[in-house]
C-alpha cells in the first residue's frame, strides 16, 4: 500500500509540474468602456450605426465556439455574418465543430476555454447553468444590460421571458435565449384519418359514423369529429378488411403513433376522458402543478386504450417503433411507384403526427380530424362530453442557447454585437438565411418574403446551408410585421386554430390548462429532485406499460399507493415544481 | 488476506524491502535473529537484483506510457470526494467527504440498479466465458484445417458491426413486423413484442453480445491450442484415448493457464458493462430490468453534469471489480497453481 | 516485426535445439476412428454448422441492406436478396474526398500504434513472466490498477493537451499503447511456454538478455504476437473517441470519424421536405459504413491467422 501512496504522490507531482507550464494565453488588449469609447468609437445606443470604428474592427476580435450542422457552411463564410461585420465592425471569429464532437468537447471547453470567449448553440440545461454560474465560470449578462438595448427591451416587454431565464439563486441572467414563438409546440398532435378507407367503411361496411352514404363526400372533410365508439367501429373495420386492396388483410395498421415521442404520441387519446396528458404526465391546471395520472378518469382512460390495443385497433408496434420506422412504413408498399397504385401502399388508417406530408405518400387522402369525443358508457361513466387534447411542456423559448466566459477582455463589445441578433430582421436572417438567398431583396408590405427563385433547392436545404440558427427573437409581432411565416408552419397553425385551440379553452374545459414553462430551480431544489428522479422515472414507465399490458382496478390502486409512497417522493417533487412555477408567475 | 494475495511462490521472498531501512532503526539490533535473517534476505535480493536488473529495462516503455496516460490523470478520482463541476480546480476543490457515495447508497433505486447490473453481468459471464473456449476447441479439432480457417474468419465478422447497427438489426429482426415474428405468425403463432417485455431484455442483450464477440474472444484460445504438442496427442492416441478424452486430458490442461488468467480477469471486469448498448436497447417497457449502474452514471454524469457524483459511482464500481478480482485470484491459486499474480 | 522466413527456418532447419524436437515428428500415424470419435465429430460439425448459420445470416443481411433502399429494409421486405437496389449510400460516401484521407490516416495510425503496442507489450510481458524480475509484484500491481481505475475525461484531456499533443497524430497513437489485459495475456503465454531453464541455458552460452529476447524468444512467439497484433490493430482501427476528442484538423481525421460525420450529416435536418429522404439515407448509411470500414481488415485476417494456426509454439518448448 505504501507503494500505492508513493505512486500517487509521483503522479500528483507530475500533474502540478504540468499544470504550472500550462495556462496563460490571455494577452489580448483589455480596455475599460471609457477607453473603448475613446479609442475605438464604441457605441451601443444606436442600432443603425456600427458598434466600433474602423480602428476597432482591426484591433479587437473575439473567438466564439459553436457546433454547427454538418450541412451548414462554416459560420465565418456565411453571408449573414459578413453583413453583421459590415454593420457593426465587430470582428467575431467562429470556431465550428460538428454537433457530435460538441457533445464530447462541451465540458472540456467549459473547463478549459483556451482563449474562447463564448459558446453559441451551448444547449446547457438549467442545472448546468446554475452550477456553472455558482462557480463563476460563466458571465452574469444581467450586469451588462445597459450595453444591450434590444435585449433589455425584450426583458422589459416580456417579464415572463425574463423570469424563465433568471437564475433564482442570485437573480442574475447568465444566458441569451432563443425565442421562436409560433404557438405550434404546446399542442404536438393532430389526428389524421384515411379518407378512402373511411368512405369504403361507410359505403361497403355500413359502419355508422353518423354519416349517410349520400353525404360521404361532403362530410368526410377536415374537421370531422368522431366519438370513441364510432372510431372503434371504424378502426375495427380497418383491421378486419383488406383496405388497401393488395390482397393481404393483415398489413393494415388501424391507428398508429410513436409512444412517448415529443410529438405524434399517444397523449391525445387521453383527451377522450377529459385529461390533458403529455409525456411528462405533468401540467399546470388552474395555476397548480398537476400530475395527470392522479386525475379522475385517468384509470378509465388507460383501461379503455388497453381495450383498443388488445383488439388490435391500435397497432402494438406504436409502443416499440422509432420515428424512422413509423415514417418509412407510412410510405412503403407494393408497387407504390405508379401513381394509380399509391393506395395499395397505404398502411395507415389513422395516425397522430405533427403534420401529414412527411408521413404518407398522398397527404390529400388524409383528413385532419377534431379531437375524439369520449365513450358514452365506460366503467359505468359517461365521457361523451369529454373532448380535449395533449398539452405538452415543450417551451418555445430555449434558455441556454448562448453563454459567455468570465474575464473576457472588452466583453461589452461582444455583448452589444450579439444584442443586434435580437433585431427583427437580423433574427429572421439568423433563423432562415440571409436576404438575397433565403428572402427576396424586395419586401412585401414591409415583410420579408421567401425567395421564389431558389435554383431547384428546397427551403430547408437553403436554411440548413445558410442559416446559423441560434439566438433570435421571433414572436407574434414579428410574424405580423417583419417576416412571413413559412408555408408549412402556417398550414399547421391554421389547423391548430381550427381543430385544437377550441378544445383547450377555459370556457370549453371549465378550468385553465397550460404547459409548464422553463423553470429555474435553486441548487437546493435540484438536489431534492435528484434524490427522487430515478425512482420516479422508473415508476412512470409503468404508465405506458399499462396501455399495452392492461391494469386491473386493484393493481391501479396499488400503483397509485406506491407512487404516493415515501420512496418515490412524487409530492415532494411536485412542491418543488409548484414553488418554481409560482416564482415565474408572481416574480421573485 | 491481502498479504496472501500478492504472495508469489518462491519469489515472494525477493519482495523488495528497502535495504536502507535497517540502519535507520538501531533498536532492532537488540534482537539477534532479525538482522541476521534480514541480511541474508537482503543479500539474496541484492544478488538477484545485480543478476537480473536488466529485465527492468524491458519494462521501461510500458511503464512510462502507463504513468503518463493512466497514472497522471488518476488525480481525477479525487473529484469523487468533491462537489465538482468541470472547470473547478481540483486542488482547491469543494471537499464533501463521502457525501457523493452516501447519496448514491441512499437513492431508492440503488438496490434495484445493483441487482440489474449484477444479473446482467453474471448471466452474460456464464454464457460468454465458456462459449469461446468451446468454439476454439471445436475449431481446433476439426479435421479439415481449411474449413476451420474459413469458419474462424466468419466468426470474427460480427465483431466489426457497430453497436448502432447491431441494435438496429435486433429491432428489425425481433420487432413486431420483423423476421422472427413473421416466422412465428406463418407457423400459426401470435406476434410477440420482444422489445416491450421486460423479461426478454436480458436474454436478448446477452445473446446478441455473445453473438458479436464469441469468435473474437476465441482467438486467444486458438492461439494457445496451436501450441499443444503433437507428440502428446500421439502418445495419448497410442494409449487408446478417444478424441474427447484427448481434449479433456491433453488440450484443456495445456491451455488451462490462459483459461485461468482470462477467467480471473473476466471476473475482475464483471461489473464493468458499458452503457451504450443498454441505452440503445432501453425502452419504457424494459426499463425495470435495463436500468443499470452504467446507464445511471451516464444519465447523471453526462446529461446532468454531476461529474463528482458520477465519478464516485464509477469508483465504487471499480472497487467492487477489484475485490472480485482479488477473490477470483485467491480462489484460483488455492484450487490450481494458476493465478494472475 | 514478425518475419515469416525466420519462423519457417526455426520450423524446418534442425540447428536450434528447441526446434529439434519438432523435427522428430513421426510420420502421421493413421489411427482408426472409434464410434465415439465419430459421434464427437458429427456433433462438432452440427454445432459449427449452426453457429455458422447464426453468424452468417446477419452478416449477409448487413451486406444486402447496404445495397437496398432503407424503405424496403424498414418494411421487412429485405430478407435474402437486395430489394430496390440503391447505391446512394455508397455514392454519398465516395463522393467525399476526405474518405480517402481518412483511410490513409487510419492505416498509418493503426500501423504505428500496433507496432509500438506490440513491442511495448511483448517486452514488458517477457520481463513480467520472469520470476527473477526484481520488484515483480510491484509491477504486477502497478499494471493491475490501471485495469480498474482511471481519472476520467478531463484530467486525461489536460495531460494530452499539456504535452502539446492536441491536433497531432500522437494524441491518437500514444495513449492506450499498453493494455493491462493484453499484457497479462502475453505474460501468461511466456510463463507457461518458456521455462527458466531455457533462459539459463542461453545465458550460459553468453547471450545477453536483449539478444536472447530478439533472437530466441520473439521468433518462437508467433502465435501471441499474432494475437496481440490483431487485438491492438483492430482496436485502433475501430476507435474514434480519442480522435474526436483531440483532433480538430479535418486532414488528420481517421476513417471512423469521417464516417460518423457523413452519417450525422444525413441524420440532421431541420425537418420538412428533405427530412424523409435524409432519414432513409441515414439508415442506409449505417450499413454502408460498417462495410466500408470493416471490409479491408476482414480481408486481412487470414494473413494474420496463419501465424497461430501453423505456429511454432512456446508451449512446445516445455520439457
What does this structure look like?
The complex is a heterotrimer of chains A (588), B (341) and C (319). Chain A has 23 helices and 13 strands. Chain A is of the alpha/beta class. In chain A, the strands form three sheets. In chain A, strands 2-1-3-11-4-12 form a six-stranded mixed beta sheet. In chain A, α7 (149-157) crosses α8 (159-165), α12 (298-310) crosses α21 (523-549) and α21 (523-549) packs across α23 (570-586). Chain A folds into three domains: 24-183 and 397-432, Periplasmic binding protein-like II (D-Maltodextrin-Binding Protein, domain 2, 3-Layer(aba) Sandwich); 190-369, D-Maltodextrin-Binding Protein, domain 2 (3-Layer(aba) Sandwich); 523-586, no CATH class. In chain A, β7 (282-285) and β8 (288-291) form a beta hairpin. Chain B is mainly alpha-helical and 341 residues long. Chain B folds into two domains: 2-81, no CATH class; 99-335, MetI-like fold, CATH 1.10.3720. Chain B has 17 helices and no strands. Chain B has helices at residues 2-6, 21-24, 33-52, 54-71, 99-105, 110-128, 130-141, 145-156, 163-174, 179-186, 198-225, 230-238, 243-268, 276-281, 287-290, 293-303, 307-335. Chain B starts with a helix and ends in a 6-residue tail after the last helix. Chain C is mostly helical and 319 residues long. Chain C is built from 16 helices and no strands. The model of chain C is unreliable at 1-29 and 310-319 (pLDDT under 50). Chains in contact: A-B, A-C, B-C. At the B-C interface, α3, α4, α7, α8 and α9 of B face α3, α6, α7, α8 and α10 of C.
CATH domain class name of the largest domain in chain A = Alpha Beta
Instruction: Evaluate the radius of gyration of chain C.
Output: 25 Å
The CATH H-level homologous superfamily of chain C? MetI-like
In quaternary terms, these chains amount to heterotrimer
Low-pLDDT sequence parts of chain C:
1-29, 310-319
**Strand runs of chain A, count:** 13
Protein structure class of chain A: alpha/beta
Largest sheet of chain C: none
CATH class placement of chain C? Mainly Alpha
Give the low-confidence spans of chain A: 1-26
Please give the count of helices of chain C.
16
What would a concise description of this structure say?
Chain A has 588 residues and is of the alpha/beta class.
Amino acid at each position: 500500500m505504501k507503494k500505492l501512496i508513493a505512486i500517487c504522490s509521483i503522479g500528483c507531482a507530475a500533474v502540478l509540474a504540468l499544470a504550472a507550464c500550462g495556462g496563460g494565453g490571455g494577452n489580448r488588449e483589455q480596455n475599460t468602456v471609457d477607453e473603448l469609447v475613446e479609442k475605438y468609437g464604441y457605441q451601443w445606443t444606436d442600432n443603425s450605426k456600427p458598434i466600433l470604428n474602423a480602428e476597432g474592427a482591426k484591433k479587437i476580435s473575439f473567438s466564439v465556439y459553436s457546433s454547427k450542422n454538418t450541412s451548414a457552411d462554416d459560420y465565418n463564410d456565411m453571408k449573414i455574418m459578413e453583413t453583421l461585420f459590415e454593420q457593426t465592425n465587430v470582428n467575431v471569429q467562429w470556431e465550428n465543430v460538428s454537433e457530435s464532437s460538441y457533445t464530447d468537447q462541451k465540458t472540456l471547453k467549459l473547463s478549459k476555454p483556451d482563449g474562447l470567449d463564448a459558446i453559441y448553440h451551448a444547449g446547457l440545461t438549467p442545472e448546468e447553468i446554475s452550477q456553472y454560474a455558482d462557480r463563476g465560470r460563466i458571465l452574469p449578462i444581467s450586469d451588462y444590460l445597459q450595453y444591450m438595448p434590444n435585449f433589455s427591451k425584450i426583458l422589459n416587454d416580456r417579464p415572463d421571458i425574463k423570469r424563465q431565464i433568471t437564475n433564482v439563486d442570485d437573480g442574475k441572467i447568465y444566458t441569451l435565449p432563443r425565442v421562436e414563438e409560433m404557438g405550434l409546440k404546446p399542442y404536438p398532435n393532430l389526428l389524421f384519418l384515411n379518407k378512402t378507407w373511411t368512405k369504403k367503411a361507410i359505403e361497403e361496411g355500413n359502419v355508422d359514423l353518423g354519416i349517410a352514404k349520400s353525404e360521404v363526400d361532403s362530410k368526410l372533410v377536415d374537421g370531422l369529429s368522431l366519438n370513441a365508439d364510432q372510431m372503434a367501429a371504424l378502426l375495427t373495420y380497418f383491421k378486419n378488411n383488406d383496405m388497401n386492396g393488395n390482397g393481404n388483410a393483415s398489413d393494415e395498421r388501424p391507428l398508429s403513433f410513436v409512444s412517448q415521442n415529443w410529438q405524434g404520441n399517444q397523449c391525445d387519446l387521453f383527451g377522450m376522458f377529459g385529461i390533458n396528458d403529455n409525456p411528462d404526465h405533468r401540467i399546470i391546471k388552474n395555476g397548480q402543478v398537476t400530475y395527470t395520472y392522479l386525475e379522475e378518469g385517468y384509470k378509465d382512460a388507460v383501461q379503455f386504450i388497453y381495450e383498443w390495443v388488445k383488439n388490435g385497433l391500435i397497432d402494438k408496434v406504436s409502443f416499440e417503433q422509432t420515428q424512422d420506422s413509423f415514417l418509412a412504413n407510412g410510405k412503403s408498399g407494393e408497387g407504390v411507384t405508379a401513381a394509380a397504385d399509391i393506395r395499395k401502399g397505404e398502411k395507415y388508417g389513422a395516425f397522430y403526427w405533427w403534420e401529414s406530408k412527411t408521413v404518407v405518400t398522398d397527404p390529400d387522402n388524409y383528413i385532419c380530424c377534431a379531437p375524439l369525443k369520449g365513450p358514452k358508457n365506460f366503467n359505468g361513466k359517461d365521457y361523451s362530453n369529454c373532448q380535449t387534447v395533449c398539452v405538452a411542456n415543450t417551451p418555445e423559448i430555449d434558455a441556454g442557447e448562448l453563454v459567455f466566459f468570465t474575464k473576457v477582455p472588452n466583453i461589452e463589445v461582444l455583448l452589444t454585437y450579439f444584442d443586434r441578433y435580437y433585431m427583427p430582421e437580423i433574427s429572421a436572417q439568423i433563423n432562415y438565411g440571409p436576404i438575397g438567398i433565403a428572402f427576396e431583396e424586395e419586401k412585401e408590405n414591409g415583410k420579408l418574403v421567401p425567395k421564389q427563385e431558389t435554383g431547384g433547392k428546397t427551403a430547408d436545404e437553403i436554411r440548413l446551408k445558410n442559416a446559423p440558427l441560434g439566438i433570435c427573437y421571433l414572436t407574434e409581432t414579428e410574424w405580423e410585421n417583419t417576416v412571413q411565416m413559412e408555408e408549412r408552419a402556417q398550414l399547421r397553425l391554421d389547423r391548430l386554430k381550427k381543430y385544437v385551440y377550441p378544445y383547450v379553452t377555459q370556457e370549453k374545459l371549465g378550468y385553465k390548462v397550460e404547459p409548464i414553462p422553463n423553470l429555474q430551480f435553486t441548487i437546493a431544489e435540484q438536489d431534492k429532485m435528484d434524490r427522487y428522479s430515478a425512482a420516479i422515472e422508473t415508476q412512470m414507465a409503468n404508465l405506458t406499460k399499462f396501455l399495452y399490458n392492461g391494469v386491473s382496478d386493484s393493481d391501479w390502486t396499488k400503483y397509485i399507493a406506491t407512487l404516493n409512497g415515501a420512496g418515490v417522493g412524487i409530492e415532494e417533487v411536485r412542491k418543488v415544481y409548484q414553488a418554481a412555477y409560482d416564482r415565474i408567475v408572481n416574480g421573485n | 488476506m491481502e498479504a496472501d494475495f500478492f504472495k508469489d511462490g518462491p519469489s515472494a521472498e525477493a519482495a523488495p524491502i528497502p535495504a536502507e531501512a535497517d540502519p535507520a532503526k538501531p533498536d532492532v539490533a537488540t534482537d539477534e535473529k532479525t538482522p541476521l535473517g534480514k541480511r541474508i534476505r537482503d543479500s539474496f535480493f541484492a544478488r538477484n537484483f545485480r543478476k537480473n536488473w536488466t529485465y527492468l529495462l524491458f519494462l521501461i516503455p510500458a511503464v512510462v506510457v502507463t504513468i503518463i496516460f493512466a497514472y497522471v490523470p488518476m488525480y481525477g478520482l479525487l473529484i469523487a470526494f468533491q462537489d465538482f463541476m468541470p472547470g473547478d480546480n481540483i486542488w482547491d476543490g469543494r471537499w464533501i467527504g463521502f457525501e457523493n457515495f452516501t447519496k448514491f447508497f441512499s437513492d431508492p433505486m440503488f438496490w434495484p440498479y445493483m441487482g440489474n447490473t449484477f444479473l446482467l453481468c453474471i448471466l452474460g459471464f456464464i454464457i460468454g466465458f465458456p462459449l469461446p473456449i468451446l468454439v476454439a476447441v471445436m475449431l481446433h479439432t476439426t479435421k479439415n484445417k481449411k474449413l476451420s480457417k474459413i469458419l474462424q474468419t466468419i466468426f470474427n465478422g460480427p465483431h466489426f458491426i457497430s453497436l448502432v447497427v447491431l441494435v438496429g438489426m435486433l429491432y428489425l429482426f425481433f420487432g413486431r413486423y420483423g423476421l422472427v415474428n413473421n416466422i412465428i405468425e406463418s407457423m400459426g403463432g401470435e406476434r410477440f413484442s420482444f422489445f416491450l417485455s421486460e423479461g426478454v431484455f436480458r436474454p436478448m442483450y446477452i445473446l446478441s453480445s455473445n453473438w458479436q464477440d464469441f469468435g473474437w474472444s476465441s482467438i486467444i484460445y486458438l492461439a494457445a491450442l496451436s501450441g499443444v504438442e503433437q507428440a502428446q496427442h500421439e502418445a495419448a492416441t497410442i494409449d487408446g484415448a478417444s478424441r474427447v478424452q484427448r481434449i479433456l486430458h491433453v488440450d484443456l490442461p495445456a491451455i488451462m493457464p490462459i483459461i485461468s488468467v482470462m477467467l480471473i480477469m473476466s471476473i475482475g471486469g464483471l461489473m464493468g458493462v458499458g452503457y451504450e448498448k443498454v441505452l440503445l436497447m432501453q425502452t419504457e417497457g424494459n426499463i425495470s430490468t435495463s436500468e443499470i449502474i452504467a446507464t445511471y452514471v451516464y444519465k447523471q454524469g453526462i446529461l446532468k453534469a454531476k461529474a463528482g457524483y458520477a465519478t464516485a459511482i464509477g469508483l465504487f464500481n471499480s472497487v467492487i471489480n477489484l475485490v472480485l478480482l482479488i477473490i477470483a485470484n485467491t480462489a484460483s491459486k488455492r484450487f490450481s497453481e494458476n493465478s494472475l499474480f | 516485426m514478425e518475419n515469416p522466413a525466420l519462423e519457417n527456418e526455426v520450423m524446418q532447419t534442425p540447428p536450434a535445439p528447441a526446434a529439434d524436437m519438432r523435427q522428430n515428428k513421426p510420420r502421421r500415424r493413421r489411427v482408426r476412428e472409434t464410434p465415439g470419435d465419430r459421434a464427437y465429430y458429427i456433433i462438432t460439425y452440427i454445432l459449427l454448422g449452426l453457429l455458422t448459420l447464426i453468424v452468417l445470416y446477419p452478416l449477409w443481411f448487413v451486406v444486402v441492406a447496404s445495397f437496398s433502399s432503407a424503405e424496403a429494409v424498414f418494411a421487412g421486405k429485405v430478407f435474402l436478396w437486395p430489394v430496390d437496389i440503391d447505391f446512394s449510400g455508397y455514392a454519398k460516401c465516395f463522393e467525399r474526398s476526405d474518405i480517402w484521407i481518412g483511410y490513409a490516416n487510419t492505416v498509418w495510425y493503426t500501423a504505428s500504434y500496433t507496432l509500438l503496442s506490440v513491442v511495448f507489450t511483448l517486452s514488458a510481458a517477457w520481463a513480467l513472466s520472469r520470476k527473477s524480475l526484481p520488484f515483480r509484484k510491484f509491477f504486477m500491481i502497478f499494471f493491475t490498477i490501471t485495469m480498474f481505475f482511471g481519472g476520467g475525461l478531463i484530467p486525461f484531456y489536460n495531460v494530452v493537451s499539456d504535452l502539446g499533443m492536441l491536433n497531432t497524430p500522437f494524441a491518437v497513437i500514444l495513449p492506450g499503447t499498453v493494455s493491462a489485459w493484453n499484457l497479462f495475456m502475453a505474460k501468461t503465454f511466456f510463463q507457461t511456454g518458456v521455462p527458466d531453464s531455457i533462459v539459463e541455458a542461453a545465458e550460459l552460452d553468453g547471450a545477453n538478455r536483449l539478444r536472447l529476447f530478439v533472437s530466441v524468444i520473439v521468433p518462437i512467439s508467433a502465435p501471441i504476437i499474432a494475437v496481440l497484433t490483431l487485438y491492438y490493430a483492430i482496436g485502433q482501427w475501430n476507435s474514434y473517441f480519442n480522435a474526436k476528442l483531440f483532433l480538430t484538423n479535418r486532414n488528420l481525421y481517421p476513417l471512423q470519424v469521417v464516417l460518423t460525420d457523413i452519417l450525422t450529416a444525413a441524420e440532421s435536418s431541420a425537418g420538412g421536405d428533405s427530412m424523409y429522404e435524409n432519414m432513409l439515407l441515414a439508415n442506409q448509411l449505417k450499413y454502408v459504413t460498417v462495410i466500408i470500414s470493416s471490409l479491408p481488415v476482414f480481408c486481412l485476417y487470414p494473413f494474420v491467422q496463419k501465424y497461430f494456426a501453423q505456429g511454432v509454439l512456446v508451449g512446445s518448448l516445455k520439457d
